[in-house]
Each structure stands twice: as C-alpha cells, then as structure tokens.
Design brief:
672 residues; mainly beta; 4-stranded antiparallel β-sheet; 1 helix; 3% helix; globular; disordered N terminus
C-alpha cells in the first residue's frame, strides 16, 4: 500500500508535538490539566518462506520484513479527569517483501508503509450520561499459512452516548434503567491470496446500535436495535441495508418466585441482492411444582420472506420432568407444528417418553441405563416435489482438513442448488464449489466440507446455506422410534451399549417415491480405558457402529488415544490420535480419516519457553478428493524485563498441492 510523499511532513509535526507534550508536565503553568502515562513500543517481524506449489509448478522463496514504532498516552485530562479524559496512540512502520528466488509469478501483497492510530475521548465519566468519541485504524500484513498473504486495514470511528442509573429519569420514579447509543463507521479493506486464489474486500459499513435495559423487582426488559448500511464494490452480495430488533422480557412469579415466563421478539429485514424479512416470537413458561417435578410450555411463531419463498411456522410444545430419589429421571414431551410454504404446507405431531436410571457401584463406579420411545405423525400437502431452505445457519469447523464439515438440516438435498455464504461480521461473502468447499452425499444426508486454503471461509466462521430439497408432495406417514442404552463407568474403565430403532410407515399418498421413507436400525458399542501413574496419563476409546437402513448400510470403527506425560513441573508431553473407518457395503464406498498429533512444552522460570509439535491428518473417500497434511515445527519465546523475543520454524506438506517451509522472528520491546 502506498501513500503520498507529503505524509512525512505531518508525521514530523506530530513527532515534535509529542516531544513537546512529553516534557509539558515540567513546565506547565496551569494546574488544571495533565498529561497521562506514556507508553512506547518497538517491534520487528521477519518472515522467511520457501514454497513449492505442485499444482501450478511454481516455486518461490520470499522474505518479509516489518518494523514498527508505537507511542501511546493514557489518561491525559483537561480541567478535570471527570470532565474529559483522552487516550491517544499511534504507530508507524515499514513493510518490505523481497523474492529471493522464484519460478512463475507469485502474488505478494504490499510493500510500503504501515500506520495505525487510536483516539478515545471520554466526557463526564462520573455522570450518569457519559459520552465517548473514538477513532481507530489498524493495518496488518498477514502470512496465511497456506502459501498466501493478506493485507488487512480496518478503520472504526464514531461516538457512543450512555444513560445510566442515577439519571434525571429517577426524578420521575423511573428506576433501574440504562441505555447506550453507538453510532460509528467501519471500513474494512482486505487483499488476500491463498493457494493462488485472490480475494478482495472494500467494505464500508455505517452502523447504528441502541440497547436499553429496564430492571424490576422480579422482571427485566431488554431492547436492542441495529442498523447496518453495507457497501462493497468487490462483492455485490455484500451491498445491503439491514435492520435488526431484539426485545426480551422475563418475569419471575409465584409464591416463592418458582415460576418464570420469558418472551422473545425478533425482527430482521435486509435489502440488496438477497432481500428478505424474518420475524419470530417465542413464549416460554417454566413451573417448578416442587423440588422433583417441573413442567415447561412453549409457543413459537416465525415467518420468513425471501425471493425464493415465504415460510410461516407455528409450533407448540409441553414437557414434564420428574426425578425419583435422584436415581430415576422421567421426561415426557409432546409437540405440534405447522409450516406453510407458497406451494403447500407440512404438519407434524409428536410425543416422546424417556427414562434414565443411575446407581452408584463399589470402587467409585456408576451403573446407568435408559430407554426412550416416541411416535410422530407427518403430513405433506404440496403442489411440487421441492421445498427451499433459505439462509440455514451453520458454523465452519474449528480445523479444516481430514473431512471436517457440517451436515445440512434437510434430507434429499439437490447438490446443484447449494449456495454457501460466509457471514462473519455481518457480511455476506460468496463462496465457490471446489474452491472454498466440496459437497459429500451419503444416502439422504448432505455434508459441506470446507477446503484447506479457502480464500473466504475461515475456521469457526458463521455460514448461511441456501438450497432446494426433494420431498414427496402428498404423503402422510408415521415414525415410531425406540432406543435403549446401558453401561458402567469406573475410574479406569467405561463400557456402554446403545440401540436405536426407527420405522416409518406410509398412511396415505403415492407409493411412487418409497425412498422418502426411512427405516433404520443402529447398534453402537463403546469401551473406554483410562489411567494415571506417576505423571503418566493415558486414555483410549474404541467404538463400533452398525447401521442397517433401506437408504444406506454402514459399518464404522472409531478409535481415539490420548497419552500425556509430565516429566517435571515445567515439562509436559502429549500425543493424541483419532481414526475413523467407515464402509458403505451397498454403495461400494469406503472412507477413512486419521489424525495424529504430538507436542512437547517446556517452561523456564527465567521467562524462556519451548514448544515443539508434529502432526498428521489424512482423509480418504472413494467419492471425493483425498486430503493429507503433514506438519512439524518448533516455537520459542524469551521474555526478559521489557524485551520479548519469539522465533519459530514450521514445515508443512499439503500432499500433491504445496510444501511450505517458514521461519519467523518476532521481537518487541517496551521503550518506557
């Protein structure tokens, strides 16, 4: 990123002002203002990287060097700290990346100047109505870890106004009230490339947030409103306005306040390429009849409008829980719901009973057993054989690779209709099939698997998925379920067995679509072994799962292992493993995933620490591309007084894609 040459002059002026202010306490003539505490910091970052991109036959070696100097003043005040307090800070730095050797034209992001600033002014801090003005800017050049770079600049400026308890409202007997109004503008610019796939954002967001709380002796009311005006010329789906309203009310009542009702109102509307509205209302009532018996009642209403469809839902449920001698727990549950679509409706009635028994055994053991059974009635009345799911919420896995993903809520999804959006920070960032994710379908189940090196999706990102699912348009069917489990647990041994049975029966409708009825029988066996001896701890689990279904049959083994050893109080070593092997005999499909990880950590009283690690992850599936990752590295850190030094070295091999060798050095020092 480049800046005008004239930037040096105002920077010099600012430096002179800082120098003058730093000595002002010695010569100031006015006793009613003061300079706060000064903080200074200098940092150095060096990143050496050697990459071999096997897909594009590109090899290159680069070195990235960044230096920063920062200065901050905390607690400057004018007239009185209670009137106006200022926090001022900023940093200036240089970033340079040089290609030591290269074949091809690798993308490198940004050689130039880096600067950050932060300002905050707090007025009337001891009053019930304080005001805050703020402006911040941060710029970072990141190494993405998958052969990529990311230049991210974030700016945030605005004001916040508060009205707290003790305000003039109490003169009118309006007690226990506080509120806050936040008006600001956010600017996020990002220029990234991962595995050669570029991604850019130039997002301008105008935000208005208001929240209020009114407390009472046995009730609370909370209101939240948010306006987002978003514009991003690089992502057309990220140009929209949205309004969000949350209203919560809770009330405790009864002779001993042992009854509670909660009401939740939610409204959301969005313009742009994907306009839509969503409104919902939830009412929850909980009654404690006595110590061992309670009941719950709930009603919920929701309606969503989009370009695809309008869906209205009504649902009511009631539940009962009873505990007998802290040993036997009984749960009874009943629910009814109706969904109305533009092309028809769906009605569901269900009931379930569950019993759970626990009893102590000798040698600190526990015996448990439980059973449950249920019956559900479904009826479809549609004019077509498809229904749409819009903005179904999911979360990306915390670690990509080895087949990690999430399952869509509906069965029989049409894979070609799937659209995945990343909605982190309220954005709506589009993603691409086979670049950001792949789709895996087994029987009636559809799984989205984010790809390592996705330029858009990051671990733990909130996602929204829209798609079309196939249904039987005119059918009535019942589902009978039964389950049982039993097992024992000791300090060194655990064993359990579970059985699940589900049968669906057609009551009326066409018989031309038998695949929409699923009958399945599941058996699961599990054994745990664990123990600890003189600093050595170990735990292993073996589980076998056998599924018989008219949709798909499967046999699965899962093994997990954890071994840890604490040689001394400052040295810890740990190894973990996970293996999941599954066969689908009818489809002649086999999938395996393997995970192994080892790390050793050592800490010194002198501020020195070492962490070494190595890992292996692999996923093989006959239907989707296999994935294998091997990595190893060491990280060191030494902290001495105001100096912090942290070098590291990592080696990562993404089989058939990329080999990445990286060395980093981070040095920082608090100047004063």
């Amino acid at each position: 990123m480049t800046f005008a040459p004239t930037l040096a002059r105002p920077l010099l002026v600012c430096a002179l002002l800082v120098a003058l202010l730093s000595v002002a306490p010695e010569v100031r003539a006015q006793p009613n203002w003061g300079i706060g505490q000064w903080q200074g910091k200098a940092s150095l970052f060096v990143d050496w990287e050697n990459q071999d991109d096997k897909r594009s036959q590109t090899k290159y070696e680069t070195i990235l060097l960044q230096e920063r100097v920062g200065l901050r003043n905390v607690g400057t005040y004018i007239l009185d700290p209670r009137l106006l307090t200022l926090d001022l800070g900023g940093s200036f730095g240089l970033s340079q990346e040089d290609g030591l050797s290269a074949s091809g034209t690798p993308l490198r992001v940004g050689n130039g100047r880096l600067y950050d600033y932060a300002f905050e002014g707090l007025f009337l801090s001891d009053k019930p109505y304080p005001m805050t003005w703020f402006a911040t800017r941060s710029q970072t050049l990141l190494t993405q870890g998958f052969g990529g770079r990311s230049d991210v600049t974030f700016e945030n400026r605005g004001a916040m106004f508060e009205l707290n308890e003790g305000s003039f409202l109490e003169k009118y007997r309006f007690f226990n009230f506080n509120s806050r109004l936040d008006v600001h503008q956010e600017i996020l610019k990002e220029d990234s490339s991962v595995f050669g796939s570029p991604f850019r954002r130039d997002e301008h967001r105008n935000v208005v947030r208001y929240q209020a709380h009114k407390g009472g002796e046995n009730s609370d009311i909370d209101l939240r409103y948010e306006l987002n005006d978003v514009n991003d010329p690089f992502n057309l789906s990220d140009i929209f306005d949205s309004h969000t309203v949350h209203l919560n009310h809770s009330l405790d009542f009864g002779p001993t306040l042992n009854r509670r009702i909660d009401s939740l109102f939610y409204y959301f509307t969005r313009s742009g390429q994907s306009p839509g509205n969503f409104i919902s209302l939830d009412e929850d009532l909980h009654l404690d009849h006595h110590r061992d018996l309670s009941t719950d009642y709930r009603y919920s209403f929701s309606r969503s409008d989009s370009l695809v469809d309008r869906v209205t839902s009504n649902a009511a449920s009631l539940g009962l829980q009873h505990r007998l001698y802290n040993a036997l727990t009984t749960n009874l549950f009943a629910r009814g719901s109706r969904q109305d679509f533009s092309n028809g409706d769906r009605t569901i009635y269900s009931g379930q009973a569950a019993f759970d028994y626990r009893r102590s055994l000798p040698w600190d053991g526990l015996f448990f057993a439980g059973t449950h059974g249920g019956y559900q009635f479904d009826e479809n009345n549609f004019t077509s054989s498809q229904i749409a799911a819009v903005d179904e919420a999911h979360t990306a896995p915390s670690e990509f690779g080895a087949g990690a993903g999430f399952t869509l809520n509906n069965a029989f999804v049409m894979a070609e209709t799937i659209v995945v959006l990343d909605v982190r920070g309220g954005s709506r960032l589009p993603t691409a099939l086979n670049v950001d994710y792949v789709v895996s379908q087994v029987g009636s189940i559809t799984t989205i698997i984010p790809l390592v090196g996705s330029p858009v999706i990051r671990p733990n990102d909130p996602l929204e998925v829209s798609y079309t699912a196939s249904i039987d348009p005119s059918i009535k069917f019942s589902t009978a379920t039964f389950g049982a489990r039993t097992g024992v647990e000791f300090s060194w041994l655990g064993a359990a067995y579970e059985h699940e049975l589900s049968n669906q029966t057609r009551l009326s409708g066409s018989t031309s679509n038998p695949q929409f009825l699923i009958n399945q029988n599941l058996d699961r066996f599990k054994v745990d072994l664990k123990g600890r001896w003189n600093g050595l701890g170990a735990q292993s689990t073996a589980a076998y799962e056998l599924l018989h279904s008219n949709i798909v049959d499967s046999k699965a083994w899962r093994f997990t292992e954890v071994v840890s050893y604490q040689l001394r109080i400052d040295t810890i070593a740990q190894m973990t493993g996970d293996q999941y092997l599954i066969d689908y005999p009818g489809q002649k499909r086999h999938a395996d995933s393997y995970l192994a990880r080892a790390n050793v950590d050592w800490f010194s009283e002198l501020g020195f620490s070492v962490s070494a690690f190595s890992g292996f992850r692999a996923y093989r599936d006959s239907e989707i591309p296999s994935d294998q990752i091997i990595d190893a590295g060491v990280r060191l850190r030494w902290s001495y007084r105001n100096l912090d030094i942290a070098p590291s070295f990592t080696w990562t091999d993404y089989r058939n894609r990329l080999t990445d060798i990286r060395g980093e050095l981070r040095v920082s020092r608090n100047l004063f």
